[in-house]
Prior knowledge:
Strand 5 and strand 6 form a beta hairpin. The protein has one helix at residues 5-24, and strands at residues 27-29, 32-33, 51-56, 59-64, 70-77, 82-89, 95-98, 107-114, 117-124. By secondary structure, the chain is an alpha+beta fold. A 5-stranded antiparallel sheet has the order 2-9-8-5-6, with no helix packed on it. The protein has a 4-stranded antiparallel sheet with strand order 1-3-4-7, covered by helices on one side. It starts with a helix and ends with a strand. The protein is globular, with a radius of gyration of 15 Å. The model is unreliable at 18-25 (pLDDT under 50).
Amino acid sequence: MxxxxxxxxxxxxxxxxxxxxxxxFAGEVIIRKDGDPEPTPVTHAPFFxxxxxxxxxNGLALNFIVPQGIATITVFDESHNVVHQEVLDTNTNLSTxxxxxxxxxxxxxxxxxxxxxxxxxxxDL
Length: 125
């Protein structure tokens, strides 16, 4: 199977955007498979997660490393109320920035669902 230059170019652009976006955000949100224990701050999940998340004063940024199709992103506050929900077509857009400036301080949970995969991450404002 021959890989087209277009696909390689898209992957390189996405990887470059991912690296630049990681450098510009202050706090990493550790994304893991739902049901797995939360890793300690020093360790990461032992398997590949195709989504990274960062939180700073601009909001919660989610970046898909590779397209995963249609993803549903939901953010809950510590009372389990939905504060944000969106559907992202990762085949056309690999990232989203969720504004958090009007949210109260406290703990939040982000869930990401695509296909048969459920991911989760916790963060504080």
